[in-house]
Amino acid sequence: MNKMDLVADVAEKTDLSKAKATEVIDAVFA
Fold this sequence. Notes:
By secondary structure, the protein is an all-alpha fold. Helix content is 80%, strand content 0%. It has one domain. Pfam families: Bac_DNA_binding. Its EC number is 3.1.-.-.
């Protein structure tokens, strides 16, 4: 699973936009 797969999965499961999901993932791994 790469970052974009993770972003898409998080966005789908949480009803966030992909941009928001990317921010969340960046914050987690920062």
